[in-house]
Design a protein that fits this description.
The chain is mainly alpha-helical and 158 residues long. Among the domains are: 46-95; 100-158, no CATH class. It is built from six helices and no strands.
Amino acid sequence: MGTRSRKRAAASTRAERDAARRRPAARGTAASRRPPGALPPAPWGRFPLSELVILIGIVLIVWGVISGRDGEERLVAGLAIASLGGGELALREHLAGYRSHSALLAGVAAFVVVTAVALGLGPVRVWLLVILGGAVFGLAFYAMRELFKRRSGGLGFR
């Protein structure tokens, strides 16, 4: 049998070696650069774009409701715009490991796929759409949950 090399850079205690191993790992995570409890930063900086989009959506919803029968388009547009603003914020928080939105994002994925199939293929049996939506929701939920676990440092929810 051969001999093993026993090189040691410097004599140190186990606690010092453990602390040295933890230091680079903590420096590289996005959560360590943010103060605790702070939202993840938006890619466009400090401009409140998500909040303004949600506000525009709410204004359109109220305007559509007040208009009555003539405001159906405004109501639907307001719901879509407000949903986009909220969805962007949920996706940003989820990808940063700040807060888990696995079920919401999986629901959005299932809605998009079922809507695309229903509009693209024409008349489709409802039970097929329900099965397709359930399968997409399940796969997307699992994938989003695993992604959040990796981004949050192993937590399943926060």
